[in-house]
Write a structure and sequence with these properties.
- Four copies of one chain form a homotetramer.
- With about 375 residues, chain A is α/β, with parallel strands linked by helices.
- Chain A has helices at about 25-30, 50-55, 65-75, 90-100, 115-130, 145-155, 185-190, 190-195, 200-215, 310, 325-345, 355-375; strands at about 10-15, 35-45, 60-65, 85, 105-110, 135, 160-170, 220-225, 240-245, 250-255, 265-270, 275-280, 285-290, 295-300, 380.
- In chain A, a hairpin with a 4-residue loop joins strand 9 (about 240-245) and strand 10 (about 250-255).
- Chains A and D meet through strand 7, strand 8, strand 9, strand 10 and strand 13 of A and strand 7, strand 8, strand 9, strand 10 and strand 13 of D.
- Strand 14 of chain B pairs antiparallel with strand 14 (about 295-300) of chain D, so a sheet runs across the interface.
- Chains A, B, C, D: This is Oxidoreductase domain protein.
- Chains A, B, C, D: Pfam families: GFO_IDH_MocA, GFO_IDH_MocA_C3.
Chain lengths: ~375, ~375, ~375, ~375
């Protein structure tokens, strides 16, 4: 039964993201930024007290002690939520997503999509069956400059892609924060909550997704050297990988959470037969285009020369910096538009990362770990 | 009569900012970003049809055809707005602000504060009398790096300030857009709507405000050379000024809307007896600190070493870029906190630009224009 | 009588530049870099012992106790020097240059050209009379990127120039080094050796020269505010100036030797009706070109798209950084080529700063000081 | 028999580097920059006419038709050369170096040191036997910032090194220049002149050398994926490698000559347990130091806080850019000082790349090619 969604903001409910979480507030802000949705319900923690306190601090209309109850109850209310936001640790993604989809509620979910590859495969089937919107917050694809980069590749401005260098380096796990009571560090480095990979799952998948998003090329094989540098840590905190792409291109991916002095340095460089491009997440309003034999060009968010898709995802005149929230909000903007379409009986149009991207991400994790465990040898994806 | 404001988002109403406006959406997003307020009413255009269409596109609960009606009506509702947002062209600031303050409604207002110096002076009296929150959106002071810059000066890290260079250069009025039907260009270059200054009022005041905010020093005299480069334009589109500061420091301010190839380049450099600092609005998460004889330091938003005030106005871990909206939202965050305090009978704490900053801005405009008209001679502020 | 200069390096003699001098070695390296000249004689200090020790450390063939003796003797030797390098403090420029020119010896001289405007005027007459090469080392004009910037303006890529911002800020005189025995600081801040200006003469003239070189426009009036910030110093160590250009353009020039944390930051920005450009001496292989409405372009030394003149003054493939010495050496390259031409009875071709640039520099100094002394008022140049 | 070298510039002779060569002039300028040596003889081409024309254009005193003749003749002259500069294609390095060493003449030689690993091993023996100075122009180690980077690692400022990322990417062989008569491209891509590797030999060895120079750590194994992207080319023009270091550190090296839009982008990043550092050859006067939890620092050439070794290899005050020639000249400065020492019967002090670095370079080439040919598998160095 389709809901009436015209003339109102959509209603969202969040699972996870309670006090102490960084990503919870990101989802709320991103979901609400365009004034097209409002978070009104939540099951924000498995700890009931924290769940209620978190909901109160957000002035939510309804707080639940469990996501199951929330899914059931909201599905039956006439003013129930239109979509669920899943912001829990990785091991809970699958059951939570499943609960809402099965109640006919659309879902926006954090990445990596699931705890295991098997769950990811099941989720693909479920989404295909339910015909509901499922958006995965590979948020870096939401930057207008990233969209323009993809457009440059698509329109042939780079020629044939030959070489790709992608890095995502941080230092937030340089020290053993997980032993000092840091909540996020604890679950991120815990194989029972994060899955089989640490840095590769948390940030390596962003790098992999961004590479494939911009180049439109699949990684076909990789040779990965994962390392756990911090003593006593159960998962990798650093990885270097050689990549081969479906078109014969070659590449390199590195991710690290022990790269001293780095904040959140996600950088992508692509080189083709005609030109290169370079993008730095920390200065996301700039895209460097490097035509062979010509001056490098500094492309900037929302300038007239940017592609239509890129401009459509920009909100401010050039020179007024847009950042992390706005890129994240673009995933929501696109997903919300599709939710409105589904509820209005229209065709979806996509544009946001999907369950298939999530599946590729899990496959990437599994193969990277496999490669490394076998001695950093080549494996096919 | 104080309103009950606990346990709910504040309610806001906006005047101006309708379709075709860039700043309207900025106010909505900034006001709502922290989940502490919601825009629910509006008198978004003097054109009733556009007013209603604008309100509908934002899903507002109540749309008014005039700000007077909105002020009167909302003041009497038990669920009326807690504060008004004034996003009209400059000539309407004063009457609109006055209308709401006189109804006991707090106000957040665009800059320059008023059309004329006389209005600014009247507004100071009115705000002093009413004891309501009045916040002026000199939004660039909302950047965490700008706050930290001020803290560095305050704690003496620069020593005595000797030299200040501030620039705000754009190129959006390089061509005579006002003759091509550009709505914003039209009123910005129209003396009956903008006041006696063009670029000096629109962006020069931001530069002046930022300089005084960060250094804590007043400009005591200036020598200004204003120019109208685009033929047929009624107001200045470029200005260069020499400055003298109250402590004997010297400086320079330039603003331009015809600086070809520039987006929104607001840059401040301050040099003291011990160190210098540099900040660029277009890369706002970075503050460069330049101690004499030591390596320059790259200070970044929300890192542990930033000042408490700076960190309190940051929302994301370092390396996750915050931008224009978030800085703007910080003005709202501080103003909303004060509105809650006033309504709860507590002392205000400020932290946002006030009616006195607005008065200084108008005085700066008047003196810059006077200096230039007399042949670019020195005038006292 | 023309010398035979084919098939050999030219022979140069240096006055000044002895031990403790920074600029002496710069002249030697720059003069010899292309293998077209060799410094073989010198009167490197007024202190005879230091003169001899300096000459010995350079393996010079001949050391003189005075420049007069050097000029006389070298002029009579069949293997005498072809040109003299003048690297003394400012007050000695005129007598030394005069001595060599009168002996028929070409001259390359440091800037500012002379101690006073009167000397500069006399030097113009002398050079015109003697028909010898006189090159002034406004070395920043030697950068290939600066040449290309001039070419961009000349070919109309910027349209009509409207606004010019030029800065030259350092901090090497932040402390009173002249009281601590620093040789260079001592004469730089001594009016009997430097002339009537400090920072304006030392670096302000570079800024003025660069501005006029690149834009091809004369400064017609200025309003200058000079300051001596360091107590007890006899000359200005900081200046801010408003400028007006012959074509109606406006501008700003600042120079400072007390700008804490700055090294040698000479920056020029020019804005025209079509595009802007930006150049930073500290990263001299990059020129930023900013066409209105198009992406900014990063132009780099010796790339194929650079102008012929720019490439002719580049020595290395793009990406192999050229710096201060190489730019300085370009002044020598051009001057040496003209010396060869004069000695071979050919027409000179110029390309290096001349006695007329030197005269403009002195005039600029005189007018800046006059403006400031009268209270920072406008004066005509 | 020791030569008398006091009180004069050393005399050098060059082999190769004739007209059409880029590196010949680099050697001359670098050798002569400090005024401590002069190139006076040459066998600049195997083509006798070009050899003579090249020598004449440099005003050399003596031109030879063959290096053998030059070695024999110069060794017997009382005013013969003190050292030879070897600037030929790779396949000639060994015989030329051997000829001069056997005549008792010191050598400065281009890299890679020899054509094959066997030659490299023989050269080590020969240099050990002859007790002459042999310097290899791994010129990037000559940058003062690179020296300071090494000092930071040595003094423990980074803690234990964990991760190293080194890149050297260009685009000068993006097109098949070797088919268009480009002299340098021809021999660089010709296995009979370059050896078994293309990009890996030409620039990969620079990256390898720089990594080991700065970190002081040996690469113990690598997994290399070499590619020839340009059709018909006989050698690799691109490579990606995983690295493992002797202390357990991991790393990555990429080199490419088909990276569209890149000039000469050699970049090194090192991450330790306490801090990281970053250096870009294209802006070589800056070294970025990244202490964990503290602001990044911008270290600049010749500032007071730089290490003594770094400052000793700087020539200009901070802010006066030094570049490629000056770094190259530092290799010569150190080698020339050692030549003076040897000739004066003193102990050598080194500081420049040696025959052992050359051997490591050849070994690196051999192992990278072997790894790649076996399918990009791990091999021990």
């Amino acid at each position: 039964m389709a809901r009436e969604v015209a003339n109102r903001r959509l209603r969202a409910g969040i699972v996870g993201g309670g006090q102490g979480s960084f990503i919870g507030a990101v989802h709320r802000i991103a979901a609400e930024l365009d004034g097209q949705a409002e978070v009104i319900a939540g099951a924000m923690s498995t700890n009931p007290e924290r769940a209620r306190a978190s909901a109160a601090s957000w002035y939510l209309q309804r707080s639940y002690d469990s996501y199951e109850e929330m899914a059931r109850t909201e599905a039956q209310r006439t003013d129930g939520i239109d979509f669920a936001i899943v912001a829990t640790p990785n091991h809970m993604h699958f059951p939570v997503v499943k609960a809402f989809l099965e109640q006919g509620i659309h879902v926006v979910c954090d990445k990596p999509m699931t705890f295991s590859l098997e769950e990811a495969q099941q989720l693909v089937s479920l989404v295909e069956e339910k015909q509901l919107v499922f958006a995965l917050t590979h948020n870096y694809t939401g930057y207008p400059t990233v969209r323009h980069a993809r457009d440059l590749v698509r329109q042939g401005a780079l020629g044939e892609v030959r070489k790709v260098l992608v890095e995502y380096v941080q230092d937030w796990l340089l020290d053993a924060l997980e032993k000092e009571g840091n909540k996020q560090a604890s679950w991120r480095t815990d194989p029972t909550k994060s899955g089989i990979a640490g840095s590769v799952g948390d940030i390596g998948t962003h790098a992999e997704n961004l590479l494939e998003f911009i180049t439109g090329l699949k990684i076909t094989s990789l040779c990965a050297d994962l390392t756990t540098f911090v003593e006593g840590r159960a998962l990798d905190d650093d990885a270097n990988m050689l990549l081969r792409l479906e078109n014969g291109g070659k590449g390199f991916l590195t991710c690290s959470q022990i790269a001293a002095g780095e904040e959140n340095n996600l950088t992508l460089r692509v080189y083709g037969t005609k030109a290169g491009l370079e993008w730095h997440q920390q200065e996301p309003n700039t895209l460097i285009f490097k035509p062979h034999g010509q001056p490098q060009q500094i492309l900037r968010t929302n300038q007239g020369y940017m592609s239509d898709e890129s401009k459509a995802l920009s909100r401010l005149p050039g020179g007024h910096p847009e950042g992390f929230y706005e890129a994240f909000a673009n995933i929501y903007r696109l997903a919300i538009a599709d939710i409105r379409r589904v509820e209005s009986g229209e065709q979806t149009q996509g544009g946001y990362p999907t369950v298939y991207d999530g599946l590729r991400g899990l496959n990437f994790i599994v193969k990277a770990v496999e490669s490394s465990q076998k001695g950093a040898v080549w494996v096919e994806l």
